[in-house]
């Protein structure tokens, strides 16, 4: 692969990630809210370790010794949150008690429609370089592993995806950290800006503060590995099937790539999902969650196995169109640019 092909993969990866991020941003916000401790109904007592939305809560007396209510002056009516360790069923809240549309309506009603696009700025800033780094690293790593391992074997795809995931996570984690903090901000009157968020994180924790949750991101590489192993296997079958047909690409070909991307990402998301919940909890404000395994253990202890899969329905609804759009856009851009510059990428893929 020459330098021109590498640039093509950079451009295609960046374009694919950007398009997918814009289209699915509202679902990303809903998913993050559901994954958080606030969405699960677990809340800390007001203080330095409490999430920002709970610090202005007032504490009344307990009722019958069984429940305690937190009421907030932020909204026109009391907001009731169930504390962990109590058996009384919690009321409706942002979390798995609400459907996706209910969550969207709740956010729009209390925070305005623009709240559905919180974190879009950092997302757009990060998604292009993240996907560009990922796809370019993947293609370069695939070439390297092909030279020392059986070409295009499953182990080559696993090693290539691992290298790409590690590189992308390491370089872009600070951007995703800021994005998550902005998505969890529920202040309608004075919403936090990206610059304010960066300054606050740096003043409290320094540079290392931006890498909180990086271990969960590394664990998430397993999802990427599963995704691309399945995708490459399906893609190889498609290339072999069309080997004797015309070199011209049709809309049917790109539809097949969309289906391949959707299937592979759905399976991968279901298997590796708990790391998403752990990552969101680690990125919350406070010191309640300190490490990947500690977070999963705490979530499981307080919320059960369902707690480890909070927001999964939203994740699947978001990931299927996001991945399908991303993969089809990536393949389309690569095809257009390779055709325009007369490179041999697709010819090599066919052999």
Please explain how this structure is put together.
- The chain is mainly alpha-helical and 351 residues long.
- The chain is built from 14 helices and no strands.
- It has helices spanning 3-23, 25-35, 37-40, 100-111, 120-148, 154-184, 194-205, 214-219, 221-241, 251-272, 274-283, 292-303, 312-341, 345-349.
- α1 runs antiparallel to α13 and α2 runs antiparallel to α13.
- The radius of gyration is 22 Å and the shape is globular.
- Mean pLDDT is 77; it is low at 43-93.
Concise overview:
With 351 residues, the chain is mostly helical. It has 14 helices and no strands.
> Major sheet: size, sense and barrel closure?
none
The span between the termini is 14 Å
Oligomer designation? single chain
Q: What is the overall shape?
A: globular
The average pLDDT value, as a whole number, equals 77
Note the main attributes of this structure:
mainly alpha, about 65% helix, 14 helices, about 0% strand
Fold topology:
Blueprint: H1 3-23, H2 25-35, H3 37-40, H4 100-111, H5 120-148, H6 154-184, H7 194-205, H8 214-219, H9 221-241, H10 251-272, H11 274-283, H12 292-303, H13 312-341, H14 345-349
């Amino acid at each position: 692969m020459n330098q021109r092909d590498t640039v093509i993969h950079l451009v295609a990866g960046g374009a694919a990630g950007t398009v997918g991020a814009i289209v699915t941003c509202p679902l990303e916000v809903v998913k993050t809210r559901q994954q958080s401790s606030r969405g699960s109904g677990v809340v800390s007592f007001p203080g330095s370790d409490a999430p920002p939305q709970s610090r202005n809560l007032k504490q009344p007396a307990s009722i019958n010794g069984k429940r305690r209510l937190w009421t907030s002056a932020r909204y026109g009516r009391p907001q009731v949150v169930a504390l962990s360790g109590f058996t009384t069923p919690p009321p409706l809240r942002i979390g798995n008690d609400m459907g996706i549309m209910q969550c969207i309506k709740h956010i729009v009603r209390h925070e305005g429609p623009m709240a559905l696009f919180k974190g879009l700025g950092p997302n757009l800033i990060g998604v292009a370089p993240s996907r560009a780094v990922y796809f370019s690293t993947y293609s370069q790593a695939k070439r390297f592993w092909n030279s020392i391992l059986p070409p295009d074997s499953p182990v080559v795809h696993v090693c290539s995806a691992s290298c790409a995931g590690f590189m992308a996570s390491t370089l872009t984690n600070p951007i995703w950290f800021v994005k998550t903090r902005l998505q969890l901000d529920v202040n309608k009157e004075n919403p936090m800006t990206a610059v304010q968020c960066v300054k606050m994180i740096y003043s409290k924790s320094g540079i290392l503060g931006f890498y909180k949750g990086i271990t969960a991101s590394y664990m998430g590489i397993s999802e990427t590995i599963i995704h691309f192993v399945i995708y490459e296997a399906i893609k190889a079958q498609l290339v072999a099937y069309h080997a004797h047909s015309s070199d011209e690409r049709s809309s049917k070909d790109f539809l097949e790539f969309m289906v391949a991307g959707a299937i592979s990402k759905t399976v991968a998301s279901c298997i590796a999902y708990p790391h998403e919940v752990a990552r969101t909890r680690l990125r919350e404000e406070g010191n309640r969650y300190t490490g990947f395994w500690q977070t999963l253990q705490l979530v499981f202890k307080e919320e059960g196995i369902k707690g480890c899969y909070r927001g999964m329905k939203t994740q699947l609804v978001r990931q299927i169109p996001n991945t399908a759009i991303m993969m089809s856009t990536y393949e389309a851009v690569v095809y257009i640019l390779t055709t325009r510059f007369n490179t041999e990428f697709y010819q090599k893929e066919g052999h």
